[in-house]
Every structure is written in C-alpha cells, then in structure tokens.
TrEMBL record, chains A, B, C:
Organism annotation: Kaistella treverensis
GO annotation, cellular component aspect: plasma membrane
Pfam families for the chain: Gly_transporter
InterPro entries named among the record's database cross-references: Gly_transporter
Keywords for this protein: Cell membrane, Membrane, Transmembrane, Transmembrane helix
Transmembrane segments: 6-28, 35-55, 61-82, 91-111, 117-140, 152-170, 176-193
UniProt membrane topology term: Multi-pass membrane protein
Main location: membrane
Name of this protein: Uncharacterized membrane protein YeiH
Coiled-coil residue windows: none
Key word tRNA processing present: no
Family in the record: Belongs to the UPF0126 family.
Amino acid sequence: MEVQQNFSLAIEILGTIAFAMSGSFAAMQKRLDPFGVLIIAFVTSVGGGTIRDLILDVPVFWMHDMVICSVIFITTIVSMIFKSVEKKFKVTLFIFDSFGLGLFTIIGIQKGINADLHPLICITLGTITGCFGGISRDILLNRIPLIFRKEIYATACIIGGTIFLGLVKYSTLSYAFVQVSTILLIVAIRTFAVKYHWEIPKFYGVDNSSEM
Amino acid sequence: MEVQQNFSLAIEILGTIAFAMSGSFAAMQKRLDPFGVLIIAFVTSVGGGTIRDLILDVPVFWMHDMVICSVIFITTIVSMIFKSVEKKFKVTLFIFDSFGLGLFTIIGIQKGINADLHPLICITLGTITGCFGGISRDILLNRIPLIFRKEIYATACIIGGTIFLGLVKYSTLSYAFVQVSTILLIVAIRTFAVKYHWEIPKFYGVDNSSEM
Amino acid sequence: MEVQQNFSLAIEILGTIAFAMSGSFAAMQKRLDPFGVLIIAFVTSVGGGTIRDLILDVPVFWMHDMVICSVIFITTIVSMIFKSVEKKFKVTLFIFDSFGLGLFTIIGIQKGINADLHPLICITLGTITGCFGGISRDILLNRIPLIFRKEIYATACIIGGTIFLGLVKYSTLSYAFVQVSTILLIVAIRTFAVKYHWEIPKFYGVDNSSEM
C-alpha cells in the first residue's frame, strides 16, 4: 500500500514538473517577465487539480503540501536557465504537455475512484484534471486553446481514461502497470496523431460566430 | 411538495438540454472534433451551476446525479446527428441559449432562497448560474463573449430575476406559474430585444484599451 | 483587537471600491450597457477573493455580508455618473487598479496567516487575491491581460507581499503601520515602474505560438 502511495506521489510530481515546464516555456515564448512566468507555470500545474478538488470538496492538494509548490518553483527556475540553450520551443512544449496530460488524467480518475463516484464522473474528473491546466494557460496567454487545434488532445485523454478505468475494474493486471501503460498510451496517441496527421472527422459548419 | 420538486427537476433538465445544445452547436460551428464538442457542451451546461454550488458550499449538482451527465451526453449526440440537416446555426443557438438563460437564472435564485440569503445575493447567484456557462463557452471557443454584444443578455437575466423574486415574496400566485412566466419573460425580453433592435444606452468612451 | 478588525474591514472596503471602479471604467471603455458594467465591476472586485476563499474552504466573503455587495453597487453607479465628466480613462484605471492590487494582496496574505499556512502559500494566496480579479476582468472584456504588458504587475504584488510577511514575522513595527506601508510600496513600485519605464529583463523567444 505504501509502495502504491509513493508511486502515485511520484506520478503527481512528474505531472507537476511536466506542466510547470510546459507553462514556463509557453510564458517565455510570450516574453513575460520571470514573475509572470512563475504565475503561468503555477496555474498550468495546479489549475486542473484545483478545480477537481474544489468540485470533490476535498482540501486543495497544494495547500498543505510544500512539495508541489517547491517542485513548481524549482522547475520554473530550471526552465528559465535551460531556456537560454533551448530553441525548439514547439517540440519541448509538446512533449511536456503530452506527459502532463497523461499523468494528470490518471490522477484525476484515481481521485474519483477513491471517492466512489460513477465511472462517467471519474472520467469527467480525469479530463478536467488533465485538460484545465493547459486550457487556463492558453486563456491567460491569449494563445489559441489547445483543444481547438487539429491535435487529438481531449480525445487522447478520454480514450486513455476509459481504458484505464476498464483495466482497473475488470483486469487482474497490477495497478502500477495499468497506470504506467495508460499514461504512455495517452502520450502515444497524441504523439502519433501529430506525427502522422491523424484527424477525427470534424464538423464543417460555416464559422460565422464573429458576426453573430 | 413532491410535485414542486419534480417540476424543478424538469426545469433543470430542460435548461441542461438547452445549454448542451447551445454549446454543441457553437463548438460544431468552430469545427471541433466530437470529443471537443462534448467538453464544450458539458462546460456550457454545468459551468454556471458549478460556480454557484462552489460559492454556496453545497455538493456540486452533477457529481452524484447521473441524470444531468446522461442528459448532456445524449443531447450532444443528438445535436451532432441533427446538425447534418441543420444549417441555421445562428437562430438555433440563439433560441436554446435564451431558454437556458431563463431556466438557469430561476434555478440559481431558488437555490439562493433555499439557503436563506439576501435577495441581492439571490439575484447575483441567478445571474452567475444563467450567464457563466455561456461566458465559459465563449471564452473557451474564442468567441466574442455574449455579454459584449448588442443583445440584451445579462439585462434580461437581472430584470427577470428581480421580478421572479418580487412575485415569490409578495404575490399569492402559484410558485409554478411564477417560475414559468418569469422564464418566458426572460426569453421574451431577449427575443424582442434582438428582433426589434432594442438597446440600452451604452457608454461611449474611446476604446483605446488595446494600446494601454 | 477591535481596532485592528475595523482597520482590516476599512482596507477591504477600499480595495473593493478601487477594483469596482477599475472594472466599471474598463467596461464603460468597452461600451457595455449598465448591467454589463455592473457584472464586470462585481467580477473584478470579488473574483480574486472568491477563488482564495474557495481554495481556503472558508465561506465566500461576500455571501453573508451585504456591505461588500452594496459598496460595489454604489461604486458602479458613482463611476457611471462620474464617467460623463471623466475622460482620462487610462490614468484613472491605472491608479485604482494599483491600489486594489496593493490592498487585496495584503488581505489575501492575512487570510493565509490566519489559517496558519506556510509563508510561500500565503504569498500565493495574496497573489491570487490581488491579481485574479483584474485577470478575470481582462479575460471577460477581451483586453490584453495586464500581466502580459510591460508594467510590473505581478512582480509588485510578489515583492510587496514578501516584505509584508517578513515585517509581520520578524519586526516589532505595529501591524497597521506594516499594512499601510506595504500597500503603498506596491502602489509605488507599479507607479514608478510605469513612470520611469522600469522593466524586468524578459525572455526573448520567437513568438510563434499562433502558428503552432
């Protein structure tokens, strides 16, 4: 049980690092000053989980735990230093964002399972945890929101989450194995989708919203 | 009493359908993939009520109730199918959005009354419930926020809400009748406002915000 | 003790007036109708504090207290009347926004101290209280978010907050004096930063986010 808890903590820290990096790089790309970069990194990392915890009415995860805040602080500083030798913003941002998405989706679903909620609500919480940090980052930075673009983003999150929940409930595989494999599956779906230009059929309406 | 509860549930479901449709159509108009459409439909439907419940510190209404989630899911799928024969996005979106606004405003005020809050706070909660789902949808989709446009939106919500509260407190009319008539009043105010180009006088400052 | 409480209430009311004015002027600048102006004034004033209270899991401060709502209501009406003789939106908005930032940052940190939280979390809560009302206002009004611009905004908030916390913990100065002086410090940092074009070195990446 303790091993399992340590493992879940490790996943939470990895997800926090991934999203803090993703937020830092996006903010530096938009030329914010260091404190602005720190705020964006913070919102990207804790945004989804904060909304999830508020909805679940449990204590917000980063409030009484200095580990998460310290991790974000250190990651942001490392990103700033690392930045000076790093030019490939797009690829870096994409990779960290994908890992953060996978890691946080699974954490969100686990919290829903622990609260004995309906599977559909669990997947909803996973999607909120995975997607809302990145969505908040994009809204704050005036970027085109990720869910908008051609990349398979929410889709990877929902498919991966559904498979995770199915395996946890109906398979005899070890919990840790199911965690790691579904996280990698979410990252893989997004990566291959972008690499091979996979696309889900979209709706072709006339975009006249701005005139409405 | 039970009749009253069933009636309130019916109103909640109708409002959820209306906003899920409004969210789905807006998302399809912006050419999102089916999962993106689902997320936008979800946020539009539950966004306002979620913020209201968090502020009231009561359990979030869709957490332990599969009815709302199922309604959103089914409505979104029906909207996607219906879409292929539906071209008049603007009118459809407008009608559903107006009904959602009216229905949710009244639900929000009722929750405030049940919690014994001051009338001004009740109207605030009604406005949050009615407007914030649509506002979230517009922010996520990068649309010009509804409250921005010429349409009388928040105004309809505040006027209708105030009349509802006055009738509930000081009239002897049946509760159900007051509910239905104020909902229709909100829809009517918005519809006539758009149809006959009603406008509330606005402030004509120089819009130099972007240079600031 | 009572004097201290009255003093804190006075600060809260002043901050509310400052942000309600800032929200009203920004909304009038964008030519919203009076009800839209009221909503923006409300969100600007209570946005940051609401998120803080939800995270702290304490009752939202404006729910059971008609003082705050009345102050916002009256301030908005006064701003609308005052508007007709007021042309210098930029300067007015800037001054009120700066005072609101200083006042609310200190209130947020105080609430964190009262809840016995880690200093780093206290500064985070102060930053949320100070910045998120203005950020919400800018997102709702489609303005370029303040934290984005050249002005030293979040920076003033974080520096002032850190000094406040240090003086409260390690100095023997009176609490009221520390409050007033750090609030004025935050306003001073922002004002001088804008006046003398102070700038924190930023990151010069290529801004290609829109193509991503």
